[in-house]
Each structure stands twice: as C-alpha cells, then as structure tokens.
Amino acid sequence: MRLAEDGGSNAVKFGIVRDSQGWWFWFDFGEILQAVDRKEQWMKNIPIDHSSRYITSLVYFGAMVAIDLVRESNEQLRDLPPHLSSPTAVFTGATQGIGLATLRQLAIHTVQPTCYIVGRSEPKIQDIIVELKGLNAKGTYIAIQAEVSLLEEVDKACEKIIGMIGEGNKLDILYMSQGYLPFGGRAETKEGLDTLLVLDYYGRLRFFQNLEPLLSQATTPRVVSVLAGGQEGKLYEDDLSLEQNFGFFSCLAHGTTMTSLVFETLAKEHPT
Hints:
Helix content: 25-40%
Mean pLDDT: 76
Strand content: 5-15%
Order of helices and strands: EEHHHEHEHEHEHEH
C-alpha cells in the first residue's frame, strides 16, 4: 500500500470516514478550495488500496472525498461496535493544526474514546484536555509529556502508554502528525540525528515498532501518518542522514520518500 500523508496547516477541516474494516481519515481544505478548480484538480476520486490490516492511507492532494459523505459517516460512528465507537487511540503532534482537529473530531463523534496525547508541553495538553472534556465528557484523555524529536523520549512515552493500557490489551488507532519546517537549516539533536528526520521518519517508525504489540490485539487497528503526501523525490542512499545534502526541498523529498517506503513495507508485512 502506498502511504500518502500531509501535515499542512492549510487543512482547516477534518473528517473521519469508516470502511468495512475500520477507519479512513479524510481532509477538507474548506475555504481554500474556493480558489482552485474543484472539478479538474480537487474533486477527482482516487481508489484507495486498504488491503493492509495496519496501515490506513489516503491520497488527497488532487483528490477529495465529498465533505457531505464525511459528515454523514461521522454521524454514524456512535452506532458502531465498541472498538469503533469507543476506540483507544494514541496521538502525536496533536497539540495544534491538523492533529488537534483530528482529535477534536474523534471526541465529538465517538461515544467513549480513550486518547493518549503525546506532546512537548504538558500544560498545553492539559488545556486541550479541558476542551475535549467539554466536547465529550465521557471520554478519557491522558497527557503524555515527551520531546518526540528524541528517540529516547519516544521510547519512554511508549513505555508509559503500554504500562497504562496494559500488556495484552489493545490499541485501535496510532495517529502521527508531528513535524516542522526546517527554515533554519540542519539542526541535530543530542542523539546526533537531524530533528526533522526524527519527526518525519525515525520517530514515527519507533512509535509503530513500540506500540505494534498493542495494535496487534485490536480488531481493526489503524496507523495514520500525516506528512507530505505526493512530495516524494530524490533519495540520498549514500547520505541517509543528509549530512552532506541538507536543504529545505531535499530534506522534504528525502524524508517523505523514506517514510512512504517504510510504511509501504510495513503494510506488506502486516496484511489483513
């Protein structure tokens, strides 16, 4: 399965669409669509390969599901079986932007969700939890403080989540949308890796690897990676860390390509 994802701040609306296997996630650019040709560029449907049990993906740059269908499907979520109407989910990169929009919609349209929210600022997450409680008081929302640009902290966050959920129990959704734009050039973490590549690639893979045992216990687990779908490009096979070839566009294409390739591989390794 091809993984296409996007984390742009222009995504002003968000919807959750289900299929017979579980969840699809769709985006709507809202007012931004008014400035483009909907018929030729944006409204063409592209078939989605959802053969994987684990990796749900979508292509929406140049494709869009009708927003009415999204809203209609969202309204039906509460009537679905418990693993869909009251899912357990982990969110990373959901303290703002499209991740936060997703989290809000999940709270609104499900019965009793349990959401582990991973982020750098616990006070900010606590503010979000107050908002989510207002949207759905039956939900359980847990703050997990972690600097996800550090793999050591990714591991600690996962260890904490596993401890709270309990080994042998299930995780229905892993949603990852962390990232930033490297306008200031290459920025290495104390672990010697570029910050952007950790957020886009290494950290996402580590979250999946650590939480896969919980995902494997779910009836219809879904992993969603929101990044830069359609922006794949040159892969620097002799310079995977981009120590010699770092640049805004080279990093965007290189990191997106690595992430797409690894999720394609994971999808094949975890078929339905």
